TrEMBL record:
Organism of this sequence: Natronincola peptidivorans
Protein name in the entry: Dehydrogenase (Flavoprotein)
InterPro entries for this protein: FAD/NAD-bd_sf (IPR036188), Geranylgeranyl_reductase (IPR050407)
Length: 372
């Protein structure tokens, strides 16, 4: 068996680590100069979104000997809407770094791998097919899956983010549900240390959003962050992503090609979370290659979560700012506490049920945003 992994990101590296643990040494091709050789950003593992697994970091260590070190754990999640604020406290998850930093998640995973990674690789999938018996497609987007006619694109998203300097509580992550600067989307602040944080707006590229000026929206958001934090922040780096594809594969495997990570559709449409599922999909593909399971079977639960998450996103997109206020107000009370009990509940169901009466308060609202 000769295995090639295309893409040394979360899913590709996870696949490589598990293959090596089982005596298979893959060839890994990466088209950048190094792993995670891109803009720096903060990302989070949110325990409630990986239920029934309530600690991704411990889960990967104990079950798969994949060791990840977060930059911090999340003890509080603050959610702002236009006029309301909710605070949810508990062991909520972890902050991690991605991009060009030695402590980034992919650099940590690379150190656990012995197989050589071929950087600046220009191999096409078709070339790899000629040389290898099995290919794991882990390029972080749906482009190849789409080209192979194996992908359904559900939406694309525009994102703009910045690294800001200021004073931050490293244990508190903040989210904003406000159409004024993230129409039909969301915005967040992830602390990377006491003095550095990543702020981001993300919204879907629907026709009604096409005329929007992302820089103007980001300026509004930046002002709101500073108002809510009551301090002046300094932008030290920024990034922008257009056309970030969210979709999923029809078939997780075609012949001897495995689709993992975003190539499979591991990114959850609701809030764009995908780290946990990307790593798991890489592990599952490796299990199949090692004769320890069947990829199509193992991946089924992730596919199910994707569909639920998409339904939830569509519900959220219907909310205007008044309805976000109602939602955030209810999150501040007992509903927030129920959400923390992630081991016993299906969070998607709970939030879905919560949204139903809010959506129906004034009927099906098609005027989504409160843009002036
Ligand atoms: C701004 C932003 C914020 C996010 N925040 C969160 C978050 O807070 N929590 C969360 O869970 N998820 C988050 N995500 C999603 C998460 O980053 C992804 O789900 C995850 O990285 C997907 O893993 P992957 O292995 O599919 O792709 P990646 O980790 O992106 O890896 C793909 C790799 O393939 C390489 N590659 C691409 N094309 C080729 C090619 N032709 N040949 C060889 N190599 C190639 C790339 O260079 C890259 O190294 C966020 C995403 C973005 C963009």
């Amino acid at each position: 068996m000769k295995v090639a992994i295309m893409g040394a990101g979360l899913s590709g590296l996870a696949c490589g680590i598990i293959l090596e643990q089982n005596g298979i040494h893959p060839t890994i091709v990466e088209n950048r100069r190094d792993v995670d050789d891109r803009f720096v950003n903060g990302e989070i593992f949110l325990n409630a979104l990986s239920a029934p697994i309530n600690d991704s970091i411990a889960y990967f260590a104990e079950n798969y000997n994949i060791y990840l070190q977060p930059v911090g754990n999340i003890k509080e999640l603050i959610i702002y809407s236009e006029n309301e604020k909710a605070s949810i406290k508990g062991d909520l998850g972890f902050n991690v770094i991605r991009g060009r930093r030695n402590d980034s998640l992919c650099h940590q995973m690379k150190k656990q791998l012995k197989s050589k990674i071929i950087y600046n690789a220009e191999h096409t999938y078709e070339e790899l097919l000629k040389e290898y018996t099995h290919i794991v497609l882990a390029t972080g987007d749906g482009a190849y899956s789409e080209r192979l006619g194996n992908y359904k694109r559900d939406l694309t998203v525009s994102l703009k983010g910045a690294i800001v300097e200021g004073r931050f509580d490293p244990y508190t992550t903040i989210a904003w549900l406000d159409n004024t600067f993230a129409p039909m989307g969301y915005s967040y602040l992830i602390p990377m240390s006491n003095t550095e944080a990543n702020i981001v707006i993300a919204y879907p590229d629907y026709p009604q959003n096409n005329q929007l000026d992302i820089n103007l929206l980001f300026e509004r958001f930046f002002q709101r962050v500073q108002d809510n934090l009551q301090q002046t922040l300094k932008i030290v780096d920024d990034f922008q992503i257009t056309n970030y594809i969210i979709g999923s594969c029809d078939k997780p495997r075609i012949g001897n090609t495995f689709f993992v990570g975003n190539c499979f559709g591991s990114i959850m449409p609701f809030l764009g979370f995908g780290q946990h599922t990307a790593i798991l999909s890489g592990v599952y593909a490796a299990y199949d290659l090692c004769g320890k399971g069947t990829y199509e079977e193992l991946i089924k639960t992730l596919d199910h979560s994707y569909k639920n998450s998409l339904a939830l996103r569509r519900s959220m997109e219907k909310l205007n700012n008044q309805k976000f206020d109602v939602l955030v107000k209810s999150l501040n009370g007992s509903v927030g506490k129920i959400l923390l009990d992630y081991n016993k509940i299906d969070y998607l169901k709970i939030i879905g049920n919560l949204l139903k009466p809010i959506i129906s308060v004034t009927g099906n609202d098609q005027t989504h945003n409160n843009l002036p």
